[in-house]
Amino acid sequence: MSTSDYDPACLPDLLPLYYRRLFPFSQYYRWLSYGGVSKNYFQNREFSFTLKDDIYVRYQSFTTQNELEKEMQKMVPYKIDIGAVYSHRPSQHNAVKSGTFQALEKELVFDIDMTDYDDVRRCCSAADICSKCWTLMTIAIRILDRALREDFGFHHLLWVYSGRRGVHCWVCDDAARKLSVAARSAVAEYLSLVKGGEETVRKVVLSDPIHPFINHSLSVVERYFQQYAIVDQDILGSKEIKFHNSLSVSYDLHFSCVSVKSNSKKGGQYFDKEIMLQYCYPRLDVNVSKGVNHLLKSPFSVHPKTGRISVPIDLKELDTFDPFEVPTISLICEELEKPRAEEAEEDDMKDKENEQEAGERRRIRDYKRTSLAKYVKVFDRFLEAMARSRKGEMLKKSGEIEKDSVFHIHLILAFTLQMD
Amino acid sequence: MQFPGRRKKLIGSSQNDLYDHCLQFYGQPPLENISLTEFETFAVERLKLLKTVENLGVSCVKNSEQYTKKLDAEISRISEYEKRRKDHISHFILRLAYCQTEDLRRWFIQQEMDLFRYRFNDLHSKHKTDFLHKNNLKYETVSAEEKKSLQDKLIASSYGLSGTKVEEHDVYKVPFQDALDLVRTRKVYLLAGNAYIPHHEIVTIVLNDFRTRLSKALAMTARSLPAVQSDERLQPLLSHLSHAYVGQDYSIQKNIGKISLEQIDALSGKSFPLCMRHLHKALRENHHLRHGGRMQYGLFLKGIGLSLEQALQFWRSEFVKGKVDADKFDKAYAYSVRHMFGKEGKRTDYTPYSCMKVILSNPPSQGDYHGCPFRHSDPELLKQKLQNYKVSPSGTNQILELVKGMHYQLACQKYFELTHNVEDAGFSLNHPNQYFTESQKLLSGGRDIKKEVDMSQRSQENPASVTRPSQANSKQIFLDEIQELSDPS
Fold first, then answer.
1. β partners of residue B140
2. Which of B165, B365, B368, B384 would you mutate first to test chain A, the one with the most A CBs within 10 A?
3. Residue ranges of the DNA primase large subunit C-terminal domain (chain B) (predicted)?
């Protein structure tokens, strides 16, 4: 097992090592600066830390990557949350005239938590997860990713494993970060199909006409339904899971579909679809997505109970993603301590020349030696895509895009050189 | 006030320009002089209209035939020009009265939007287009080829669209941020961040615009309010207007400490409305409530008279029986209880939720127990619960009928009548704390509480204002009318 038994009691020893040598600070800073297009974007970002003994501190902010590193290494947070970009530096919010300190922008985020599915999964409950119910997360990611890209036109989505029982999505497009509270809540409502609490048995209600979004989502669910619900969860074999009283439900293996016979005369032409959606469709917490100032667990932070790192998920390998293979902090610290190869000694010489760069280079070499490497790569690719898209935007803005955009840029350069 | 002397001067020549459309966005404030009487009358009439809009919005499905007919009936018939002028002026007067707090603004915006929507839908198609052009709402129309390729999807996403309609009429491409109401309810086709709006749905877009403008305007009005309030003729009028809406908000705790923690279990069965009884039971059984439930129930308890210390004790003792130890409670949950009482953060003394708020906002999901059981529970489960609480089968049926008709507050009132064994509740239910107060009043057979309530309302409404002897009478009549608006029973 790649878990390398994690013991929460070791956190005080492991975290300092993690923050000194493994946490990908430069990529993290690159992400949150968003190309430096907006002034003070990073400086006005709120972070919150949960320190040892559950001490919670809000309104942390940093002026440079260096300061972020130093502070994190000093405070050694057990949990890190990312909040909004404010009108002023969060660390100075008390000095600001009351009413003028405001949350301005933040990524659009989604939080899918396995506990919200407790009424429809038999294998686990509460904080537990297993390979059987993890499929729910796969389905959630596929459905939401498609909708956010194709329906809403977003491009830069970062999916992150939460470390224990769910996944988070960070939508990082410019337009997404500027969304109002009303817009965020509208997006979350559009994406919600499963409604109702303890008191509701029939949580999905469909009526004509069926919106294209629902059809897209159904086709994703159908791909996974037989293996997940019929085989793994064995929903038909259970008396615990409630169906609507007047329905008798069976599964047609030949046509791979749910077949529903209803005793009552009311409506219900879509009972089969409703059942599939009730068992599989993503359940998101609208309140997490609504607030511009809502704080959400940061990627690459450690989950104190499981020790797992909140790593980005590579959607190209989504079907083989296994939350139990995600490295824990103890594993990667252990991998770090393994004897170093000869080439490492050469690099040591180069390091002595320039301490600061050396620190970074060492860190880059360090995480590459651990299981964290492949996840940082996913993050790198995500950052690259955003950088490319920013370049495209800048070219567009710096005048009309004509065939000779290169010529155009030369002209600008010539001008500015002259003015110097 | 730029125009000296007689109003009549204005009506003459520019009559056609000023009010050339029956509907407007209220972009420009009125610039004429009006008498104090007109000021008062216009304001009260519009307020009455907005209250009617509010009540209809709760008891009927908005924009259904029934709703439209009833609203038609309320709008009186006077000359078109007079109507429009009154509309213009009264809107701006009420802005003054309703700009000051978040709650007032929200209410005002909601009713004005509903009114606007009703009136826009009433317009002929040509007038709709006129309105759009006049107000600079130019949205891109979708090309014929694109319409053809998306035809099926458009029909499947929008209400009332057929193949021919798509071909013949315009479809507008609008950034999804400008069509939030349609996005929220998934009543529109979305592609690459754009909403494809058929011609007849354009009202929702217009409404969005209306809401944004009004919201900004109210914020600005609030800033210039001090200047207006210094006019002693207007100040009492304006504050009475806004109190007519707020009325009893149960944040005044005259009865702090009159409830002891031991009484709560018994009270929950006798005097709590169903929603709070449900929450209390869930708390006792699970030794936990999620945020939505804690807010709704916690604020209610504050409203019935629990002090902060009592509340902390109550919640702690319950949570500690569950998975939360005393330390964790103090760290995580105590803060939020103190927050409710206005002792943390921005120190707002939050008011207990009214029925409207419970019914319309924050619907419960898996693991939640808050909300209005008449609105949010499955009818089957609601029936069972009522039977468990020993409501007669015929009574249960009456309640279920009301629920089917979406008359949730009436259903709760019926529940009150059945559990207290009275034919008529004697009040019009709009707040869970009101349910509690009325119940206690009934059970103790006393009139004391009601008198206290009346007294406090009167004392709120009479700041030491200088009343001119000659106008004293009309002022009193005006104040009485306002009083009536806040107390529909």
1. B173
2. B365
3. 266-436
Q: What is the pLDDT along chain B (489 residues), one digit of tens a residue?
A: 433 333 333 333 344 566 778 888 888 888 888 888 888 888 888 888 888 788 777 777 777 788 888 787 777 544 677 788 889 999 998 998 888 888 788 889 989 999 998 888 887 767 777 787 777 776 777 888 898 899 889 988 887 778 787 787 778 888 899 889 899 999 999 999 999 998 778 877 888 889 989 999 999 988 888 887 777 888 778 877 776 544 455 655 555 667 888 889 999 999 999 999 999 999 999 999 999 999 999 999 998 988 889 999 999 999 999 888 888 888 888 888 988 888 887 777 778 888 888 988 788 988 899 999 999 998 899 999 999 888 999 999 999 998 988 888 889 999 999 999 888 877 778 889 989 988 988 888 754 433 334 444 443 433 333 333 444 455 555 555 555 554 443
Minimum distance, in Å, between the CA of residue B99 and any CA atom of chain A: 17
Amino acid at position B100, single letter: Q
Question: What crossing angle do the helices spanning B263-270 and B432-444 adopt, rounded to 10°?
Answer: 100
> Which A residues 349-408 touch B at CB under 8 Å?
none
| Structure tokens that stand for B198 in this block | 């058929």
Name beta bridge partners: A111: A168
**Interchain CB contact of A125 with B (< 8 Å):** no
Burial of B100 (0-12, 13-18, 19+ CB in 10 A): middle
d(CA A120, nearest CA chain B) in Å: 11
User: Which amino acid is residue A182, in one-letter code?
Assistant: A
With b for 16 or more beta-carbon neighbours within 10 A and e for fewer, the B19-34 pattern comes to beeebbbbeeebebee
Q: What is the maximum span of chain A, computed from C-alpha positions, in angstroms?
A: 84
Concerning whether A46 is annotated as a catalytic residue, the answer is: yes
Strands A296-297 and A79-86, how do they pair?
A: antiparallel
Task: Note whether A156 and A384 are within 8 A (CB).
Answer: no
DSSP 8-class letter at B425? -
Interface predicted TM-score (ipTM): 0.85
**What CA–CA distance (Å, rounded) separates B169 from B153?**
16
Count of residues for chain B?
A: 489
Please identify which residue in the block is written with the tokens 């006409």: A209
Query: Rounded to whole angstroms, what are the CA distances from B101 to B96, B218, B302, B345?
Result: 11, 10, 21, 18
- DSSP one-letter string for A241-283: S---TTEEEEEETTTTEEEEEESS-S--TTHHHHHHHHHHS--
CA dist B35 and B40 (Å) reads 9
- Among left, alpha and beta (phi > 0; psi -120 to 50; other), residue B391 is beta
Nearest CB to B368; choose among A197, A203, A210: A197
Exposed / middle / buried, residue A61 (Cβ in 10 Å: 0-12, 13-18, 19+): buried
Q: Which residues contact B467 (CB under 8 A, 6 or more apart)?
A: B475
Token duo for residue A397: 């803005």
Distances (CA, A) of B469 to A372, B35, B240, B350, B474: 83, 18, 19, 40, 10
SS3 at position B369: coil
Give the residue carrying structure tokens 């693991």: B367
Pick from B242, B237, B284, B294: nearest CA to B264: B284
Q: Is the sign of the CA dihedral B82, B87, B88, B90 positive or negative?
A: positive
* A179–chain B Cβ distance below 8 A for any pair: yes
Instruction: Tell me, yes or no, if B144 comes closer than 8 A to chain A by beta carbon.
Output: no
What's phi and psi for A329, nearest 5 deg?
-65, -35
Pick from A96, A119, A190, A203 the residue to mutate for testing the B interface (most B CBs within 10 Å). Answer: A190
Cβ distance of A198 and B366 shorter than 8 Å? yes
